[in-house]
């Protein structure tokens, strides 16, 4: 048929007729759906730590961890309000646990990581083994493992929760259970998994000490260890022009990412260092651990100061600049993208 007004009118009439049957013409949206590069459903955003923390502490005056189950402020992407998403595929929240509090035991099909923002001595218990946390430690609660949190110290503890809530929601595979009791009984001494799996070693096959799930034995990556490794790397290794000195957290069982859906890494940029532009298909959540600098996302500068949090969309052009030695933590859905054959990056 000749393109023209008559055709347009006939098509519009057809669309109107088929609409009640829940049918739509692909040719009207094909170029949006199948496109040369991603059009992210999120925007870049920065949360300054101090004001965010103030809201969280105010929540702490009004509701207990037990009452809330988890006392968390969700960091919602400005264009994804109401969906508990910081990026299109990932969740971030800041969790507060006050002295004497317990966040009761549950398990769910979502994977979670904790990255400690402040306080020390509180714990997450995973299947009955406590990881006692210090600032900037990384602790995992892989999916379907029982976990409760507690604070036996005399000061508040705040950590970042990173979960794959939107991914699990996409698949409609959200399952959860409450434990019968507030806390899981202790199954092993605090820290034993980190001690035996955290140093390129593991209990001899079949020994009674090999009690963790074989495919995911380690769940505590202390700051003291990763910071030492990153510092030595910076002193000895060649620096990458696009990412700086960067180390990924590994699952010692297979050398792969920490969890099936989530990857995490840390970076160090020496004072004065400026990265070349890089894009990657994994949207990222950054946490500033140390130092000051600037992150330039698609040409827009955002200042970076300790404990600030920044969401970066997929395929955004990212350039980092360190005013002083800059240390960053980041997590993303790269682990899931790589399994699905979707992951890409481009360096300029
Ligand atoms: O600590 O188990 O931020 O289940 C959101 C959901 C934390 C947790 C969150 C959760 C948790």
From TrEMBL:
InterPro entries: Cupin_2, GDO-like, Gentisate_dOase, RmlC-like_jellyroll, RmlC_Cupin_sf. It comes from Novosphingobium ovatum. It comes from the Bacteria. GO terms for molecular function: gentisate 1,2-dioxygenase activity. Keywords: Dioxygenase, Oxidoreductase. Its EC number is 1.13.11.4. This is Gentisate 1,2-dioxygenase. The gene is gtdA. Residues 94-161 form the Cupin type-2 domain.
């Amino acid at each position: 048929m000749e393109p023209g007004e008559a055709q347009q009118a006939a098509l519009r009439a057809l669309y109107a007729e088929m609409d009640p049957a829940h049918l739509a013409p692909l040719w009207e949206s094909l170029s949006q759906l199948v496109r040369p590069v991603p059009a992210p459903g999120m925007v870049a955003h920065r949360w300054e730590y101090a004001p965010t923390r103030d809201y969280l502490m105010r929540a702490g005056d009004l509701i207990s961890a037990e009452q809330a189950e988890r006392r968390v402020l969700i960091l919602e992407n400005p264009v994804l309000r109401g969906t508990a998403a910081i990026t299109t595929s990932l969740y971030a929240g800041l969790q507060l646990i006050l002295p004497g509090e317990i966040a009761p035991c549950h398990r769910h099909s979502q994977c979670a990581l904790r990255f400690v923002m402040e306080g020390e001595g509180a714990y997450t218990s995973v299947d009955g083994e406590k990881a006692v946390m210090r600032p900037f430690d990384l602790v995992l609660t892989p999916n379907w493992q029982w976990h409760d949190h507690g604070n036996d110290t005399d000061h508040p503890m705040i950590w970042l929760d990173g979960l794959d809530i939107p991914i699990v929601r996409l698949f409609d595979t959200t399952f959860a259970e409450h434990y019968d009791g507030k806390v899981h009984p202790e199954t092993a001494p605090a820290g034993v998994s980190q001690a035996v799996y955290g140093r390129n070693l593991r209990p001899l096959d079949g020994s009674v000490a090999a009690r963790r799930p074989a495919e995911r034995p380690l769940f505590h990556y202390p700051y003291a260890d990763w910071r030492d490794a990153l510092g030595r790397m910076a002193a000895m290794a060649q620096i990458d022009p696009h990412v700086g000195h960067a180390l990924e957290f590994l699952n010692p069982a297979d050398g792969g990412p920490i969890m099936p859906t989530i990857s995490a890494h840390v970076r160090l940029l020496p004072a004065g260092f400026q990265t070349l532009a890089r894009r990657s298909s994994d949207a990222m959540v950054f946490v500033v651990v140390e130092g000051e600098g600037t992150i330039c996302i698609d040409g827009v500068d955002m200042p970076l100061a300790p404990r600030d949090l920044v969401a970066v969309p997929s395929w955004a052009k990212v350039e980092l600049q360190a005013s002083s030695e800059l240390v960053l933590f980041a997590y993303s859905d790269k682990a899931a993208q790589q399994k699905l054959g979707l992951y890409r990056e481009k360096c300029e």
